[in-house]
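Below is a filled-in request sheet from our internal design queue. Each sheet records the structural input a requester submitted and the sequence that came back. We keep these sheets so that new team members can see what a complete request looks like end to end.

REQUESTER: design group, bay 2
PRIORITY: normal
MODE: inverse folding
CHAIN LENGTH: 270
BACKBONE (tokenized):
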């Protein structure tokens, strides 16, 4: 019992030391991870211009001009949004633009009817919501006309919404079979996502999920091991960068905390 207590104290101390050392770098790393899927997809629109245009034209029967406009909008919207976010200019507008890209692609690529991909897109939206909350400067509210309980109230609810949406990614990783490893992974994973969603021991739970998701991403989505001409290469590459973006959202939670609407914050009042 004494040994276990010592290990727990040591683990918590290591976590605090990690956060102290990485505090100034973590938000930058989080933003880079978060926009990675948009950056990769924007570059893909450029490299696969004809294929993307032909796919949209054939799927929606919308004609050459509209299909070209769709690809151009995705390319400029995503790469432009990434540049603005990384340079810390007009971040709120960039986030809204990327929200629009997610919505557009959800309809255009029929993601709306695929629950797994829909949940991942919603998780990506959760990451953007956290980025929007982070960029919202004190004293300047985008919700000036909305009644609120306090100056930071909209920011707090954005952080809550971002946390809840982020955990949808992990719902797509649960395996429903009877092997011991799968059962253990499901129990631990479910416990961690509940902790992040309700905001209890949030930084520790989010950091643990980052490590878990990073390991799963590198192991299962190793697109670099598949020849570029095979369709599986593009599929795994898409999955890899989308998962990396969710990792970025979780790193924002680690760096900034859960916000006011959380059990961690309520504990301070108690």
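RETURNED SEQUENCE:
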């Amino acid at each position: 019992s004494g040994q276990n207590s010592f290990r727990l104290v040591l683990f918590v101390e290591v976590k605090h030391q990690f956060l102290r050392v990485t505090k100034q770098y973590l938000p930058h790393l989080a933003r880079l991870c978060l926009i990675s899927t948009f950056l990769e997809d924007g570059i893909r629109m450029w490299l696969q211009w004809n294929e993307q245009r032909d796919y949209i034209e054939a799927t929606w029967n919308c004609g050459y001009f509209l299909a070209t406009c769709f690809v151009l909008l995705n390319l400029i919207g995503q790469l432009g949004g990434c540049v603005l976010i990384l340079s810390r200019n007009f971040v709120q507008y960039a986030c809204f633009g990327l929200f629009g890209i997610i919505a557009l692609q959800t309809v255009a690529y029929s993601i709306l009817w695929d629950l797994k991909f829909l949940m991942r897109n919603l998780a990506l939206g959760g990451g953007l919501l956290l980025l929007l909350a982070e960029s919202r400067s004190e004293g300047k509210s985008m919700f000036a006309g909305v009644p609120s309980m306090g100056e930071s109230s909209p920011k707090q609810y954005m952080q809550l919404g971002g946390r809840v949406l982020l955990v949808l990614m992990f719902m797509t990783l649960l395996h429903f079979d009877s092997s011991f490893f799968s059962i253990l992974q499901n129990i631990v994973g479910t416990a961690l996502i509940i902790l992040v969603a309700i905001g209890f021991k949030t930084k520790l739970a989010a950091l643990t999920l980052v490590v878990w998701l990073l390991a799963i991403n590198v192991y299962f989505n190793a697109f670099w091991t598949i020849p570029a001409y095979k369709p599986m290469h593009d599929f795994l590459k898409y999955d890899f960068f989308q998962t990396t973006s969710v990792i970025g959202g979780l790193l924002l939670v680690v760096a900034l905390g859960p916000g006011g609407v959380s059990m961690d914050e309520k504990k301070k009042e108690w």
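SHEET NOTES:
- The CA atoms of residues 29 and 248 lie 7 Å apart.
- The first helix runs from residue 2 to 22.
FILED BY: M.R.
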